[in-house]
């Protein structure tokens, strides 16, 4: 094989590998987008169900705005993901249309070559039989070569026929795939139009709610500040308990009580290591629900001049929802404060998961719990029908963003 042929062969192989890699990558991307789209659709179904379950309750304007805000965000994300899917399908459709054009040309060339071979073979048959062709050889070596030629020619004809059959089947499969992709794209576009219509309706509802709130903004602002003060009071008490537990663990281990980290036993170190290795894979503390308030300091959706601090997340769920331990651990505290629903704290080595706003508690201090074990029930506000779990993850006394720890939060 000379240099030119080697170079050509390498280029062909490289092109085939590149095309195969791109197709595989696109296929994976499409699967990821479809999974995400279904997750968002499920969230919307949950939102609609929760709204339907609580439609007889008179919700506060603040709660209504929070709910509509969240739905608008989910709908916007759904539209974005669906558009990405449609755009990816468009590229795949264009690629397949080009592939079909090339396949048709290749198939036409193969058929022309095959037809020419058939004609040539027919003419050769009329002029001279194969036997005469062999007998007319000058010597045995020439006869042998002619026999090889006849066999190779027959094999080539057979391969050409098989190639035509293969290309025909490939063309049919690509055509079918193209039709399915076009149908899928049309379905996505139709669904997206409906989602955009719903989004417009929710935005109008949001505008109407905000106009109503603006008329008496000072009252709502006072309610927001009061609610934040109450949250801060509870979180300060939780922080105090955690620091006391840290000091106690260090005193017990014969270390300085001023240390800011838990003194861990060998078993607790293993537990903490296992907890860390499950980062991003831990189950949600409730079976169903959505995050109605994220982690960290953020602008309030109603009064942009106000900031709210969240040491964890708020998860809106359905009435009667059970609370589940997110990992193996030990119940370290059940906090009961005046005018505050019970709070359960579970230690996982030097990590803690904290479950606030419970109506029922199934465990007691010192109990060993396992992943997904029911530890209580979320409180449902009888006034507005809201069932909200406040959830915190802390490493020693430093709060963490639960979205980094829980699966697909």
Please tell me about this protein's structure.
With 409 residues, the protein is α+β, with helices and mostly antiparallel strands. The protein has 2 domains: 3-211, Helix Hairpins (Orthogonal Bundle); 264-404, Glucose Permease (Domain IIA). It is built from 6 helices and 13 strands. It has helices at residues 3-53, 61-127, 130-135, 140-214, 217-252, 266-277, and strands spanning 290-293, 296-299, 307-310, 313-317, 322-324, 329-335, 343-348, 351-356, 358-361, 368-369, 374-378, 387-395, 398-400. The strands form 3 sheets. Strands 1, 4, 6, 7, 8, 10, 12 and 13 form an 8-stranded antiparallel beta sheet that branches. A 3-stranded antiparallel beta sheet has the order 5-11-9, with no helix packed on it. It has a two-stranded antiparallel ribbon with strand order 2-3. Helix 1 (3-53) runs antiparallel to helix 2 (61-127). The mean pLDDT is 84. Keywords: Coiled coil, Signal. InterPro entries: Cell_wall_metabolism_enzyme, Dup_hybrid_motif, M23ase_b-sheet_dom. It comes from Neotamlana sedimentorum.
């Amino acid at each position: 094989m000379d240099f030119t042929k080697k170079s050509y062969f390498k280029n062909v192989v490289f092109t085939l590998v590149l095309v195969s890699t791109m197709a595989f990558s696109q296929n994976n991307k499409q699967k990821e987008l479809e999974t995400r789209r279904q997750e968002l659709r499920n969230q919307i179904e949950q939102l609609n169900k929760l709204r339907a379950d609580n439609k007889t309750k008179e919700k506060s304007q603040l709660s209504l705005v929070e709910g509509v805000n969240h739905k608008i965000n989910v709908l916007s994300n759904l539209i974005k993901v669906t558009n990405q899917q449609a755009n990816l399908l468009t590229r795949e459709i264009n690629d397949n249309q080009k592939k079909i054009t090339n396949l048709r040309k290749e198939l036409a060339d193969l058929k022309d070559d095959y037809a020419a071979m058939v004609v040539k073979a027919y003419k050769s048959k009329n002029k001279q039989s194969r036997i005469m062709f062999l007998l007319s050889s000058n010597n045995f070596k020439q006869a042998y070569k002619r026999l090889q030629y006849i066999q190779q020619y027959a094999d080539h004809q057979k391969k050409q026929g098989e190639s035509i059959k293969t290309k025909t089947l490939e063309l049919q499969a690509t055509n079918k795939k193209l039709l399915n992709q076009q149908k899928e794209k049309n379905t996505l576009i139709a669904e997206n139009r409906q989602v955009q219509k719903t989004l417009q309706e929710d935005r109008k509802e949001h505008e109407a709610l905000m106009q109503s709130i603006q008329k008496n903004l000072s009252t709502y602002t006072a309610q927001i500040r009061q609610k934040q003060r109450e949250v801060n009071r509870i979180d300060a008490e939780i922080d105090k308990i955690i620091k006391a537990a840290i000091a106690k663990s260090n005193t017990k281990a014969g270390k300085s009580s001023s240390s800011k980290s838990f003194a861990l036993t060998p078993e607790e170190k293993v537990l903490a290591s296992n907890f860390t290795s499950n980062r991003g894979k831990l189950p949600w503390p409730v079976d169903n629900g959505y995050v109605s308030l994220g982690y960290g300091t953020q602008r309030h959706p109603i009064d942009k001049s106000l900031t709210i601090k969240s040491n964890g997340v708020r998860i809106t769920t359905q009435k009667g929802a059970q609370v589940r331990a997110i990992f193996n651990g030990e119940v370290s505290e059940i906090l009961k404060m005046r005018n505050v629903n019970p709070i359960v704290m579970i230690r996982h080595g030097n990590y803690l998961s904290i479950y606030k706003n419970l109506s029922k508690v199934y465990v007691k201090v010192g109990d060993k719990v396992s992943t997904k074990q029911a530890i209580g029930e979320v409180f449902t506000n009888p006034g507005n029908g809201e069932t909200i779990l406040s959830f915190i993850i802390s490493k020693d006394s430093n709060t963490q963003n639960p979205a980094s720890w829980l699966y697909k939060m």
